[in-house]
Design goal:
Layout lengths: L2 H19 L7 E4 L1 H8 L4 H12 L3 H7 L4 H18 L4 H7 L8 H13 L8 H4 L1 H10 L6 E4 L5 H5 L5 E3 H6 L8 E4 L14 H10 L1 H13 L2 E4 L6 H14 L11 E6 L8 E8 L5 E9 L3 H8 L7 H16 L34 H13 L3 H8 L9 H15 L8 H6 L16 H7 L7 H10 L7 H5 L5 H8 L9 H14 L3 H19 L1
Parallel strand pairs: 1-2, 1-5, 2-4, 3-4, 5-6, 6-8
Antiparallel strand pairs: 7-8
Length: 542
């Protein structure tokens, strides 16, 4: 096949696959197997990995495979037992023993440590591996890095997926998912463990028994992914026993009468070793439960470039990592409000309607007019917190707060929840030109909550003022001196309200308060801190 003809055939596959994927309402997941690591990192398949370690200790892998019925997990268990005494005594593993011997408490762990270290040291996409040295493979990797996918699932131990999709958070096994803030978008799931932690590897017979008996949560999530997304298997044999088990479990969960609902959800990439072969996308049926067949799509190709090109041409309204963060923050705002705030209700309403008053969480999709943007801006003011104002006043907030939003919505909204709170206000009054040259404040039209706040002057408690006069005055005259002392934190903060501003640079006060805002934890101390920040606002802008 000529180069031009080959390019045309690849383009046909790319276009056919792209059209097929665009029929789905959700973006695809990639299910990555060891074939991809062999292709780009030069790593062995399962049997090749076992043979490497068997040869290293002089074990006969062929005998082990024969006595275990060619069952790879059983063979791994047998090899682990033979590997155990060698690892403990042979000087080749002295470095591993020094680092990991405290964690080796059974006959299989030493083998897992050695396997994990091997894959960790062999995971780099750098000079010396096919994905860098081979021009064709390097092009495939460059294209794969741009793939538009909703997530990665892999049974591989190596770190190829992390290098290809570095912005995707990585979750290893069921425990990681259960104890994490996984959003199931733009994430990588290493369901058989990671070389970064030997204890997570699913390798031996006992590992697989434990894996299948305990991973109900992970299995449920996989089922959800298969039900909602197209899934592209790449780097696996179409006869892989583990993958067939996953598909059988999905088929059982769906039931034989609803298998057609999964039609076109599953894609298998079947690598063709013939460079002159014609790449194709065709229907394929997988035999599953009770003689039924699960429809799938088979991608037959020598080059993976047209596959990755198709994935790179898919459309996503938001960058993947941004969508994940957006989903997380909306969930946290609704499900985990700050102390003192009630749980929020999510409703679908026109934000310009009367029902939009008081909303704390707003999520909008679509095109907006200038009027819409003004309305959204006013709603954003209602979501402001006391810490937002503090960070803005101290100049450490990434995005500044519009002064009119703070005065009209932010400050009144916070004071409705906590009427006695100390809040910065003078910066926003000055930016709205409500403080004249003589320092007079024009309050006409301001919300009543803002007017009441102006009457409240931040001051230390009487007890702390007397203590300051007795123990501190004349000895420490600057904010930095106060905070370098051994005084209690609550008292240090009240001392700031007693210092004579003539004796120090006000920027020093800002720096000290910014440092404390990043460190403060207890609610009582934070109350004193926000009072001091309100005092700084008054000094700086009133």
């Amino acid at each position: 096949m000529s180069a031009a003809s080959s390019a045309d055939k690849n383009a046909e596959l790319r276009d056919a696959l792209l059209a097929s994927l665009r029929e789905h309402t959700a973006l695809p997941y990639l299910f990555i197997g060891s074939g991809l690591s062999r292709r780009y990192l030069g790593l062995p398949d399962w049997e090749g990995m076992l043979r490497r370690f068997a040869d290293e200790i002089g074990a006969d892998l062929d005998y082990i495979l024969a006595t275990t019925g060619n069952d790879m997990p059983k063979a791994a268990s047998q090899l682990a037992k033979e590997f155990h005494p060698v690892w403990w005594k042979d000087r080749r593993y002295a470095k591993q023993r020094k680092e990991f011997k405290a964690s080796v408490r059974d006959e299989e762990r030493a083998f897992k440590v050695a396997v994990a270290e091997y894959f960790r040291e062999s995971s780099s996409l750098s000079t010396g591996v096919p994905g860098v040295d081979n021009h064709e493979y390097a092009q495939e990797i460059a294209q794969l890095r741009t793939a538009v996918v909703d997530g990665i699932i892999t049974t591989n131990y190596d770190q190829l997926a992390e290098q290809l999709f570095p912005k995707f958070p990585v979750y290893v096994g069921q425990e990681d998912l259960l104890l994490s803030d996984a959003q199931f978008v733009a994430e990588t799931y290493k369901i058989h463990g990671s070389c970064k932690s030997a204890g997570t590897l699913v390798l031996t017979e006992s590992d697989y028994i434990d894996y299948h008996s305990r991973n109900s949560y992970l299995a449920a999530k996989l089922l959800t992914i298969f039900a909602e997304h197209p899934v592209i298997f790449i780097g696996y044999s179409m006869n892989d026993r583990y993958i067939r088990r996953i598909i059988d479990n999905i088929a059982k969960a769906v039931g034989p009468n609803r298998l057609d609902a999964l039609q076109r959800q599953i894609y298998f990439v079947d690598w063709n070793d013939d460079p002159s072969s014609t790449p194709t996308l065709s229907s394929y049926f997988i035999e599953v439960i009770e003689g039924h067949s699960l429809p799938a799509q088979k991608i037959d190709s020598h080059s993976f470039t047209p596959i990755f090109e198709a994935l790179s041409l898919l459309d996503r309204p938001f960058p993947a990592h941004l969508l994940r963060e957006l989903r997380k923050h909306v969930y946290d705002l609704v499900a985990h409000p700050e102390p003192g705030q009630a749980l929020e209700t999510v409703r679908a309403i026109p934000f310009e309607s009367e029902d939009g008053e008081g909303l704390r969480v707003v999520f909008g999709v679509g095109f907006f007019t200038e009027k819409d943007l003004e309305d959204i801006s006013s709603i954003s003011g209602r979501t402001l917190t006391r810490e937002d104002l503090a960070r803005d006043i101290l100049g450490i907030r990434a995005r500044g707060i519009a002064a009119h939003n703070a005065l009209e919505h932010g400050i009144p909204g916070i004071l409705r929840f906590s009427s006695n709170a100390y809040l910065p206000v003078f910066k926003y009054l000055r930016e709205c030109e409500l403080i004249d040259e003589k320092g007079k404040i024009h309050t006409a039209g301001l919300p009543e909550e803002v007017k009441d706040l102006l009457k409240r002057t931040p001051a230390p408690s009487d007890q702390n003022r007397r203590r300051y006069e007795r123990d501190v005055k004349g000895k420490m005259n600057t904010p930095r001196a106060i905070f370098e002392s051994d005084l209690a934190l609550y008292f240090k903060l009240d001392c700031l309200l007693c210092l004579d501003p003539i004796d120090y640079d006000i920027d020093e006060l800002r720096e000290v308060l910014a440092e404390q805002l990043a460190l403060a934890n207890s609610q009582g101390t934070r109350t004193n801190l926000f009072k001091a920040i309100a005092y700084y606002d008054r000094l700086k802008y009133a």
